[in-house]
DNA sequence: AGATGTGAAAGTTTTCACAGCC
DNA sequence: GGCTGTGAAAACTTTCACATCT
């Protein structure tokens, strides 16, 4: 989208180094960053202080060159001859991924999948705490999970406006997914994680990621069928 | 792995066309195949008989050249000037993905996530029916979901040997994931779908796909943080 | 005319390999 | 000696564009 800055002369004052690096980062790099973050937490728990790209790569199941390239898109975090400081690098990666600040998350759909996501420990561990749950089913609205009350979908807009919601998780049946996404966008939500197996169309400025559970399954089926 | 055939002269008699095509197919192609399959089912439900790569691409949100390239790795399914027959192509794609035969699936871990996967409609719709559920928790073992009894993990090996299990879904906590995977492999299971956010190490001949729910979330967080 | 199937071109991602610093 | 950071090469993926068939 935006032109790479490397050939744009720095006009209005020098920018900070760390921001200089971010030309255009691929989705796979961001995905790997998540796994580096998890691995760094593991090493930190194991009281390891310093780590080489080689050892980080080993745990991630990739090459050390890949690790260094990925990290180098964001800055120079290592020290030649030594490696990376585990705690410092963890902090940097966490910062890049936006895990140092708290995001307000709303769960749209309180069915089986919704409940599993609500209870999913890893979300909490990484600072994603589901603050609001919405559904249309009168049998569910008003009930609570772990102290969080399930609200009616009609409250999405007012809650988003008053309290602010950063991320919406769509966990409704396929047929309703697009409508629910539209309402989330209308409510001003800027990021959507979609679990319904359907292509959601929303404006470009809203971030969208989809997780399709069947696709992984079908890829296995393909592997077996060969 | 295998050399491309294009420059290998056909020596010992003509091979069948459809098998000739499969050199080495990328993971992204297989992923897109899943989405073509879903879209073709939709078109079939809409009573559309013939479809062009252009219209298929439009629904999938990609280019028509991509659709044609993907399909051409498996055979010549279209007719020039006309397009593809929806029902026939659906059958071909389903066959390629191994969706025409029934796979026996075991769910390992009967927690929240396990339950959501067990109840997940899309798996059933695509012919993946969970036949067995295993857990270690004595409070769960012996109880049943929808007529399927939860068994103790120790029964995995005998059940796999006697009844045969094609695919194991790992839905246990991170710490136990590797152990559970090892036991699945030891029981002779050839395909594993892992939901624990950890790198599982198993022999190459066992197919493994991992779905990490946090990674999609962190990718959104990254997008918001920019 | 209309749309596929496919080489060749363009673009992207990964790996190599080594200069440069600790 | 050890290990990062990074241009250049290799590998892979997507798009173009057109010959080919109905």
Task: Explain what you see.
The structure is a homodimer of 226-residue chains. The first copy, chain A, has ten helices and nine strands. The first copy, chain A, has helices spanning 17-20, 27-45, 53-60, 64-72, 86-96, 112-119, 121-125, 156-163, 174-186, 213-225, and strands spanning 50-51, 84-85, 103-108, 128-135, 144-145, 148-152, 167-170, 191-194, 207-210. The first copy, chain A, has 226 residues and is of the alpha/beta class. The radius of gyration of chain A is 21 Å and the shape is globular. Chain A starts with 16 loop residues before the first helix and ends with a helix. In chain A, α2 packs antiparallel against α5 (86-96). Chains A and B meet through α2, α6, α7, β8 and β9 of A and α2, α6, α7, β8 and β9 of B. The first copy, chain A, binds a DNA duplex (22 and 22 nucleotides) through α4.
Outline of the structure:
The first copy, chain A, is of the alpha/beta class.
Write the layout of secondary structure elements.
The structure is a homodimer of 226-residue chains.
Chain A: H1 17-20, H2 27-45, E1 50-51, H3 53-60, H4 64-72, E2 84-85, H5 86-96, E3 103-108, H6 112-119, H7 121-125, E4 128-135, E5 144-145, E6 148-152, H8 156-163, E7 167-170, H9 174-186, E8 191-194, E9 207-210, H10 213-225
Parallel strand pairs in A: 3-4, 3-7, 4-6, 7-8, 8-9
Antiparallel strand pairs in A: 1-2, 5-6
Helix pairs in contact in A: 2-5, 3-4
Chain A binds a DNA duplex (22 and 22 nucleotides) through helix 4.
